[in-house]
Amino acid sequence: MRKLLRQVGAADSEFLASLEAEYNRVYQPDEPAETEWLYEHILIAALLQDVGELPYQSATRGLFVPDDDVRSWVGLKIGQDTSLWPAKPVFTLACLFGSEIDPFLAPLNSNFIAFLMTADYWPDADLATAFLPVRHMLDGEIDADRIDYVHRDAHHTVGMLGSSDDVISAVLTYDDQGPICSDPAPFANFLATRAHLYSTVYFAPQNRFRVMLVKSILRGVRESQELRLTFPLISNQYMSTDSFLEVDDVRLEEEITKLSQSILKSRLSKRAGTALTEFTTGTKLYRHFWLRDVEAADAPATTADIPVPHDLFFEVFGADASPSSGVRFSTEGPDGEVELTNIGECNGPHFGVTSNARATLPILGDVLVFYPHNSKGEDIKAVRAAYTDRTLRAALLQKARNEWDAIPPDTRSLKGFNGPTIFISYCTDDITEVRRLVSQLHHFRRRYFVIMEANQGIGGTTARNSIDGVMNTDSAILVASRSYQQRCSTQLNGNIMHEIRTMHDRRSSSPADYPVVPVSVHPHHEVTNIPWSLLGMDAPPFTGTVIGNASDTQLRATVEAALAAIDAEIGGRP
């Protein structure tokens, strides 16, 4: 970061002038802020930006969250409502304002540092566009952190294309949209190296396997009251700041090792016990394979429910999709005019890997499966048979409904959740997208009800549970998809049609009596044959983007739009 500031912060630069002007406008200090004093804030924000990360972040995200006391205390410090913030920014600011760091910040504006570190979550309209060039330097496509870790990690693993100094020296400045460079080659090399790291190192099957094992172990501990009492540090979902600071990667592994040496490990389920043994000893030889998505036209019409052996582990790859590149290249024409060209439009042999989803592994929706070599038994035979007839991926996606990262299926009566109650109507084939959508509803602390299990509820039958789900809520989000459409046409007495007919009955007097907001997993033109007329719709008023391959940001915006539509309908009732 110090090198970047030297590169773009010349005394007469627009970057420096913008930084000083914005600070003086927003914070209105008694005396204009000095450059070096402002740079100290940026350096501290760069240094501390990841202190709020959880240990084994990929495995523990969602399993550990800040408790209400932490959220309230952080919110008071910055004058913001943090009740809907993800865990990382809350824990980050809890550390920033903690007793170890806060005394060192006395000469500085700690609120400014806090904003720079967590700006994406501040709804303040006045701050929303402030300090954008600096924010791109801290958390952008070419920021100090990425320039650091990409070249460091590549040096130890896949080898490097260029160096960090090459990238920094090619930066001309940062503006509201991101970096502007003088030479696209170092940036193309950098982006290609980062893509290569993700496909072959960060998401390497060996790394993902350990993540799967940790998640299985932690879930197993939470399923046993005795284990929860004995290992509270890794079993309590809601963490204080002290607990967060106590549990780093080393301490988490120590607790898992203690569990493996305890007689109480017999309380674990078979799956969690297998994960514990494999994580601590690695006694079995595991192999892996990827299950690719297949086009609906080629997929078998039905999917058998297969038993998943306790020593088989799998996960659906659903990482955030990469946005289009915001890096621009400055060129001067023969007439002296300077033009900015997006680096994606520049020719180069490597740059395609950053924009082509099929150029690198893994791919959104792929399922990574691990199984022990020489597995035997009827369950593994069923898995092999499903693999042969190409139904295994769909079967595992259905099984994924048990892997909801501690998100409850029903928040209607939970403290701290509000708004009209929302029923989620969906097809189990789309469980991955629905899980992400429900995670967003949980993040927004909204009251919802989703049937995660076939036998969930008190209706006695799955059809009764579907009907009761609609009858006992105020509104619905309908997750349209090719599979949802197929169920409507082939299973006229199935659960989905029961839900649609019950929605029809509730909307018979007025659509506002039971708002239904459709979102779609697949392109809208592919789901036109859902019986929309039963819902009083000539054409479905789809909300937001297609969520099948949506990034986290796009999905969050779609859920926000759906909630706004529901709130507007219910708020307009006479």
Question: Which helices and strands occur, and which strands form pairs?
Answer:
Layout: H1 2-8, H2 14-27, H3 35-48, H4 57-60, E1 65-66, H5 68-78, H6 87-96, H7 110-118, H8 125-128, H9 132-138, H10 144-156, H11 164-169, E2 171-175, E3 178-181, H12 184-202, H13 205-222, H14 225-230, H15 232-235, E4 238-239, H16 241-246, H17 249-260, H18 270-281, E5 286-291, E6 313-316, E7 328-332, E8 338-342, E9 367-372, H19 378-388, H20 392-399, E10 418-425, H21 431-443, E11 446-449, H22 462-471, E12 475-480, H23 482-490, H24 495-506, E13 516-520, H25 552-571
Helix pairs in contact: 3-7, 5-6, 6-7, 10-12, 13-18, 22-24
**Based on helices, strands and strand pairing, what is the structural class?**
alpha/beta
Indicate the mean pLDDT: 85
The oligomeric state of the chains shown is single chain
Helix proportion: 40-55%
Order of strands side by side in the largest beta sheet? Answer: 2-3-7-8
Low-confidence spans:
353-360, 454-459
Number of helices: 25
By DSSP, the count of extended strands is: 13
Main sheet attributes: strand count, strand direction, barrel closure: 4 strands, mixed
C-alpha end-to-end distance: 57 Å
Strand content: 5-15%
Shape: globular
What is the gyration radius calculated from CA atoms?
Answer: 26 Å
